[in-house]
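Bumping with the actual sequence this time:
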Amino acid sequence: MTVAAKDRPLDAVREEVIDQLIMNYSHGELSLEAFESRLDIAMESNDQEIISELARDLPLSIDESYQQKKNNALGTHQHHGDAKELDKLINVLSSSKRDGQWNVPQHIVLTNVLGSDVLDFTQARFTSSHVKITILSVLGSVNINVPEDVNIHTNVNCIASSIAKNTHVEFDANAPTISVEGKFILSSLNIKVKRTVRDRLLRFADSMKAFFN
């Protein structure tokens, strides 16, 4: 006997329905407008029955091939392999940017004097579950971009500086954690989510549609 949707774990129902939405959209069973509308409801609702109803009329179910593609595209940010323990970055009267697919060391020490630094973890590969960033910034700016499913904590000392953290992400024990600490003197630190979970799902759905069409 099938367990009623209302008696099942919310996260399990949500994940299954989102998978079905992506599967059917990628095979042309759902228009883009219908897919995005149902995806938004599935992600925002906390009612298992409402979420379950979103996939009730869909003809296609997920298969092993879909699951493998999903794991490759949306799997954990953590990757097995040798982790570089320390990376020192010094920026004086200049700018630097670390982005794209790069292996994140366990500890990043950043010195910024009259400079501008960007650390973009959106597509980064984490070889350690915990990353520590130690920053000394004097008359400089540091921007840190993270995906929505990575934890980030800050513990910094500021002198005539500004700190902006716009993440609003709930802690996930299975996700990598970034800890930021250090000193900011007449400087700025801006931490923000650059790619949300919804963005990643839409990107994956579009890649699946391109694959099947």
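The tokens above came from a reply further down the thread. The longest strand covers residues 130-138.
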